[in-house]
Design goal:
The structure is a homotetramer of 300-residue chains. Chain A has 300 residues and is an alpha/beta fold. Chain A is built from 12 helices and 8 strands. In chain A, strands 7-6-5-4-3-2-1-8 form an 8-stranded parallel β-sheet. In chain A, α2 packs parallel to α3, α3 packs parallel to α4 and α9 packs antiparallel against α10. Chains in contact: A-B, A-D, B-C, C-D.
Chain lengths: 300, 300, 300, 300
Amino acid sequence: MTHIHKIDGLVAAPFTPMHPDGSLNLDLIPAYAQFLEQNEVKGAFVGGSTGEGVSLSFTEKTELLRAWGQVEAPSLQKIMLVGGTSLAESCELAKLAAENHYDAVAVLAPFYFKPTSATVLADFCIAVGEAAPEVGVYFYHIPALTGVSVSMLAFLEAIDGRLPNFRGIKYTHNDLMEYRQCLLFADRKYDLLWGWDEIFLAAMAMGARGAVGSTFNYAAPVYHELMRAFDAGDLDRARAMQDQSIAIVRLLGKYGGIATGKAYMRAVGLDCGAFRSPVQNMSAERYTEFLEDLERIQFN
Amino acid sequence: MTHIHKIDGLVAAPFTPMHPDGSLNLDLIPAYAQFLEQNEVKGAFVGGSTGEGVSLSFTEKTELLRAWGQVEAPSLQKIMLVGGTSLAESCELAKLAAENHYDAVAVLAPFYFKPTSATVLADFCIAVGEAAPEVGVYFYHIPALTGVSVSMLAFLEAIDGRLPNFRGIKYTHNDLMEYRQCLLFADRKYDLLWGWDEIFLAAMAMGARGAVGSTFNYAAPVYHELMRAFDAGDLDRARAMQDQSIAIVRLLGKYGGIATGKAYMRAVGLDCGAFRSPVQNMSAERYTEFLEDLERIQFN
Amino acid sequence: MTHIHKIDGLVAAPFTPMHPDGSLNLDLIPAYAQFLEQNEVKGAFVGGSTGEGVSLSFTEKTELLRAWGQVEAPSLQKIMLVGGTSLAESCELAKLAAENHYDAVAVLAPFYFKPTSATVLADFCIAVGEAAPEVGVYFYHIPALTGVSVSMLAFLEAIDGRLPNFRGIKYTHNDLMEYRQCLLFADRKYDLLWGWDEIFLAAMAMGARGAVGSTFNYAAPVYHELMRAFDAGDLDRARAMQDQSIAIVRLLGKYGGIATGKAYMRAVGLDCGAFRSPVQNMSAERYTEFLEDLERIQFN
Amino acid sequence: MTHIHKIDGLVAAPFTPMHPDGSLNLDLIPAYAQFLEQNEVKGAFVGGSTGEGVSLSFTEKTELLRAWGQVEAPSLQKIMLVGGTSLAESCELAKLAAENHYDAVAVLAPFYFKPTSATVLADFCIAVGEAAPEVGVYFYHIPALTGVSVSMLAFLEAIDGRLPNFRGIKYTHNDLMEYRQCLLFADRKYDLLWGWDEIFLAAMAMGARGAVGSTFNYAAPVYHELMRAFDAGDLDRARAMQDQSIAIVRLLGKYGGIATGKAYMRAVGLDCGAFRSPVQNMSAERYTEFLEDLERIQFN
């Protein structure tokens, strides 16, 4: 077995830029990538939940994939979410990601017909991974959205040794006991990327080193400072940073959820447009109120 | 307002025929349509849950749509499930359904990002329906698979008067109080197709006249007899037919779920191949056991 | 095996009368029983959900049990809900019910530590039933409140033949396929009392003859007319009665839930006081609005 | 406002000792208390989930309360779980706890009729607390068992300033963002006792200082070492202790859940008998296997 690459640091899950008419605004992507690099982000997780992959047409997904693939961004690991409910499309996207020199792809649990066991889920991921052996494969665990609650420890047992390019899990769930066990699985073999920004400090205490998140798009410095403080043993400082992260995340809740992220992007100068239906966007009046809240929490 | 067409009778949700290698076997569709017509089925609900719409690629969906569109089957209402998580693809499929002379399309609640209110859901359906004003539009309510539990009464209130080609709901849920209220909504304006075959008798008592189901593919005569007996006031006979339906459905459970339906199809002489991953198919040994069970329940 | 008594008709689940200070108003019970008998109700299900059994102290439960036990009401089957989370108290109440000449007791699935299988649940019920072999035993299935979703068919298999005084299930759930299978179990051996008033017509179509409900306290005539019409083959009339029942139940929802039932009782002249915390009661202003709604739906 | 006492350290939730016939074995309690004190445990949370409070009769609860109340154990905070579904009994137990010199009582969310808002829940807790103003009051948040998912932040807002003897929350849930916010609420006013032993390290990183747990009964030294290492900045050591805790907790899962805790107690020399129905106990053969597993994980 070759050593598995593990990401130490922050992977942002970019928003997909849209024009006012709702079509893709791919021209923004080079500036987006540069912005992430300037913020010392280590990777881009393209077409994920934050990136509205499920709301794009297949054709749009391939365009988005190519646009990020062509960006010159040497410090970014590029990961494409290729998973969905159709294995056929997932495989096709995985091949395309390989052709476009992505470092890895990510696979969701199919979320209409749901896998009934860890083995069924592993088989699905393996089929995708075998379609593109040149790229790494992450499983993207997000039961709150997929409704699939397969044990990740059982999943690792089911996939271990069967897919050479399997890298690990993007773990967007709050079971830190399971997370810890996955981290230790097979002598720490796999990469376990943490996916709940608002409790990253808790995950670091349990051993997390890498993370994928949406707030890393616009608040990476907060998390970098959190990591530095934690590594330096300065818990008070780390907690203060986590508290700032929580303040940021609370505004997501206050303003209606995931679409608020694009309001943050607009506030930091990268206007990515609106989310597509069925996600709701905030009104212009609410945006003004939102900006006031940003001042209140000293977001800048 | 023009009068809304209401279906009185059974609509089958066809299985999508596959070759042994997993590719579409569209050549079987003419025989499939003929089989349904011979069984006095009134419609085909194409690409639904039973038809594995979510497991097909977008291109395959368009091929499936065209294949059913071209079939000469004058007694069948043709309904295409165009819904999914991408509004863009749903609209494109709806247009294609109109071009291919479908009677109606059906829209699912988006099931990754979930509509947070009846209005959001109605807006999504309206956007699809406006893309193809020539065809009727059904909302396909199946919260057990979509995880979307919006009140259907609130949904009808939210969509009523806003989409001229809206026809009603394919109601695959077990809340018969809500079903009854939807049926009576706006002076019985909308078509409420019942979607739980195993308790169709209960729904008829509450006023159901039309139904969409998977077991109508291979057991339509049982339900026709149920309906005749019910209409004739012969409850004992109607219950006996419902009991036969329950016996059929219990075998679905015993043999692992939805894929068992294709085993039934094979048993009645229309081999539609296997279900795609992540749905599990029964082994050859289990199929032998299944055939014995069919004899035991006197399925023929 | 002796023949199991099956109830044909309506069993009301009485509200527990309270004084304005929240203490038990047991003096109202004789009038309450007379009211039920005048309405041709066939039984009283004492201390159930409607009767706030869980909100009473153990001592109060024994007082309530005795008060109903002493009532002269020859046409009423008396059933006491003895179940809860403590097997010891359930057994003690069951013995007391026997001493007080109840016809039967009912057992809930323990709802804090939840039975992990049908066998565990059956064992719990059997332990209660063996404590009072003179009275019949019903299992009260209400997963929406207990959170226990054990298959009732598996439960019948687990208890069948092990408890001579076991009578059947008060089935407050909406799985009519399972209900039908339980009804047919062991050659229709057990009594399956239906527990969702608002779709009783659907259950009758599936074979229900007896029912336990809260709206039978104040609206029994509606259901009697429903049953007569159904038995006479007059579905239109039966549906009209079910629609009236639904109108009644919708007001429960509109005015905040179960406590609204006591507002109905007050409206029919039997003031049972308020529900205890944590159930919320309507304000005086809301009660006025409620009375207007009663007129609107022609409740009398 | 008087300063609220906050517990720094471990509170064990004792098992309730039973004789082989299932009756209470209260004679064991003095030795039990001594064992906890020897292990430097700071408190006893009596009659909680671990203590099977819900499975006891009311009379037994009062006996258990008195037995722990009479124990001479100066280093132990005594907390009695008085909550349940009956407010009347909760108040009665709270008074009895005050008479027996407990430091505090704890209230569960009523778990049959469930509070529909934070205010309703706060009202319930306040009613209990006002019955015994001499003792502190904790709310015991354990949504996995009660099914009540009221926001704890909203709950603190609803109760703050209304119950002078309110102390805080025993937080047995895995939402560390909410936990952190509760900890900071009103300038760190309340005591937030952590209740998931297996991820205590994560909670410490988020600021936890006190905890209530079942594994502290038999494995307190592991957690003391965890706390010492964490406070000394030795994360590797702290994680090793958490891993040992996880190994212990995994055996709970392997051997069927909560009843396994009494097997641990037997292994450390305090035989507390078996759990009551509906909780399942392990067989003698399984106990032998369990002891082998204890050796494997080096539990001693």
